[in-house]
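input
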Amino acid sequence: MVSHYQSERWALFPVNKPGLNLKTIWSRMNGMEHYISRPSPRGRPRSFDIDAAIERAMDVFWSSGYHGTTLPDLLAATRLSRGSLYAAFGDKHGLFLRALDRYIADALARLDAELDSSRSALAGLRVCLAGYVDRTSGANGKRGCLVVATTMELSAQDSEVNERIAKFFRALEARLTVALTRAQQTGELAKNVEPASAARLLVCLVEGLRVVGKTSPARATMQTTVEILLDRLIG
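output
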């Protein structure tokens, strides 16, 4: 019995056409089927390091902001052609989101290392806050924080950006809450301090330090600010 699909194929090659016979038709149909089912060749594989391109773009956005960064700036920094950049990231906004994701992932990985459970909770918090003092002093402080800068520039009108930043702040607060809870369990936290509330306070402190750091305050000032708050948290 000839299937519906086969009958449609036979219709393409009428047997009464001069020079065609059943053997020729079957051979042509098999060849056509092979041609149709063959996957179309893919484009050339990317010949660049996509992670390195994101890293370089992140540095440009970090220094100039989203609106202050032009497409030529990104092409020069990533060393990509316009076509390669659009093929890999879609557009400038797509590349920016990848760069912001990278910055946030790096920040959380660093925080996880600082709050490593192999050291005491209080020691981890001290390492974490010392890192913020480093990042808000001198040239590091002048450069500022990509998350803080992006919050001010885009968060109010860009829902994708706002979602990422809000998620980052929640993750930061959650990690600090865990560390402060550990400190409470080992008697390192003052009796009247509630871990979740203290974590929210620390988030406000450290992100505030990133803003103040843009004005080049003395390192000693930043260190004193951190120590004053920490002294009120520990038992």
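quick obs: The radius of gyration is 30 Å.
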